[in-house]
Design a protein that fits this description.
four-stranded antiparallel beta sheet
Length: 608
Amino acid sequence: AKGLTYSDLSKIQKRLLSGFLSSEISSASGAAHANALAHGTYFPSSDNGCPQNQGDNVKVNQNCLNISDTSLQGRGQAQNETAIAVDPSHPDRLIATYNDYRRGDGNCGGSFSRDGGRNWTDTTIPTGFTNGAPFGGVARQYWQAGGDTSVAWDTQGNAYFSCQVFMRGPGTTNNPDLSSAFYIFRSTGNGGASWNFPGRLVFGTYTQNPAVLNDKQYMTVDNHVGSPFQDRIYVTWTIFAADGSAYIYEAHSSDYGETFSTPVVVSTTSSLCVNTFGAGTPHGTCNENQDSDPFTGPDGALYVAYSNFNNALSGPNDNHNQFLLSKSTDGGNTFSAPVLVANFNDLPDCATYQGGQDLGRACVPEKGSSQTSVFRAGNYSSGAVDPANGSVVVTFGSYINKDSNASNGCVPTGFAADGNNAYTGVKTVGACNNKILESISTNGGTNFNGTVTDPTTLTVVSSAKGQATTDQWWQWEAFTSDGKLAVSYYDRQYGTDETTGSMDFSLSGSRTLQNFGVRRVTSSSMPVPTEFPDAQGNSLFFGDYTGISAVNNAHPVWMDTRSPDLALCPGTGVTGVPPKVCTFTSAPNGPVANDQDVFTSSEDVPSN
């Protein structure tokens, strides 16, 4: 049987497919070319490809940089899509996870710290093979690649690592296997230094089932002492089916990750979902979803926030979508009908405003004539429960907000040919800009203030004076134990970021959930990413999300591009010419190549 591949997906499914998975299964980007800028050995100076902090920003991944052929730039080097978790019982213990390419293909990587994030050690996740019984009844199922990681702790000091693994199949290899699966790995007793082997299967699809493409799982653990479901593990994900649908599913474990329940559909039927895109509706009308984020409350409630694209539109220029939330009060066995968290407008179509041929992708265009910011990006939601008063708080990105609306030149104009959003004012300074917004429920997720409030009047989390006309995106949120909300995100309010495509990382904080203080986290701006480059040398894939965790203070974690990329100097490494290492440009006349590393910082949460 033929496995479901990228070309089999509908337009709406291609739009919803995560950046990690689409970069792995779609056609490869153009080859990069090296131009020597400096010659030397692997250790010529401080820029030697090995771990270095940037001021008070701490590098998490501790590998030295592989010297990859420039035609495979990023494939043996990058780290991206970050998550982090603090042990609630021992706040000095942290684990960070990420997509890790140091083996030459995407896989699930991680690092741990025992001193509050000041120092890190890499940890190896045993993803090489698992039990083969669910995959054709063989002894072993080998996995070629993996990613889309997340991490969480229970109340007993165990840590859990979620990883998607898959086989590439024909076209990339001669292996016909197209299986994919989600696994959970548990670390017991040593805070993420080692993991159980083999991992425990959450859900998997054998190659002979052509109807399923699994994507974008995320995990949480109910680590509230006294909860009726204390230490239960929850995993949610999207299934792209051959009938054109994309439902959110959930499975859980009540035995510390040894076994998992039969999957349950989270995104079912609601009057909010009216446009089903001609796709199948076997589980209800809310059949086009992505980017699920599960989180729990102290009463044992499980909440799942996710992006939904089935909403009605008011006219040909309207291109808003909606964030929905489903709730379970019985430990993930059943879910309520979806409720509206808020409406939002996604980021603009990249090909329309930035050129290039990477069709079907949105991005964060810089202002002016430059067209360097072309990495795939989308708006998503993240949620948490306020430990002080039980409010359910969801933060999210929106391209339409109080700082980017019709009064200053930013107007939706429907959809581009490939299905992504179109606007006027995308490249105009002071017109369009993406913002981090907030929606709150004070009644356990029954309804939210975003339900009846237009996005242009919702509370803006990224609310500093310099952020009013600049872009912020890829947020994540967490509460400290004493009830401060911390939200981290990429930010172009500093220096020339908004016109050059460079970026920083910022942290917003609030005790009232209404007024936010903002702090710059990065010690200097990061250049436009260049790993996985297009023909001009700019990155097509920088990841899909970032993470944050908090107990006493906040620990944001992000992808960072301030370290130089290295390659073999042209003309060296041949007979009579010893090999030397060079920095290089990522395309002829392109930008200086940089690495994708993972960085973190320990921050007091700002508040107003």
